[in-house]
Prior knowledge:
3-stranded parallel sheet
Amino acid sequence: NDIRIQIFHACELIGVINKQALVATRTDLIAFQSYAECRSLLDFIDEKQMSEENQESINRAQKEIAKMETLVIQTRNDMQNITKVVKRQEINMGGGDSLFEKIDTGIRNAKCILACVTSNYTKSINCGRDMSLSDALGKPIVPLLLKATSTWPPSGPMALVFTGKPYIDFCQMNVNSQTNDIYRHLKSSIK
């Protein structure tokens, strides 16, 4: 029964963002109208006058969404800052052995490895070596899927490293529906 309340809460969050999506589930929700949480959803859909308690529940959902949006913006800003640091490091790197030394040092000092996965990235022998070293050192690897692949893990040198690792799909990302999952995944990967 506890899972139903969580489902109703998730529906409430969806409804606050996109009421039409919630309206489309109205007939499914009717079967559960014996639950107070579900009745408040139906009242919200039907635009009935809601009790003070139900209105407070909607207000809490709106605050929760605002908090998630703040986390997404912060994560985006953090990612942009990481990208700037990486680009700066690329500019400072020359070729040859010193390049490999700098990459090795960077991987060894990293708290987490973000793999920006594209088809070219997965085919790159050097990027494959970087991922193998990261994996061998036990660094948390967070694959960020930037371009769709036909399979997961993608075939190529990194298949073994990525096997069993969940990825964050930025290809068809719906920020409103995936925000919490993305934040939780990143947070758990970096611990």
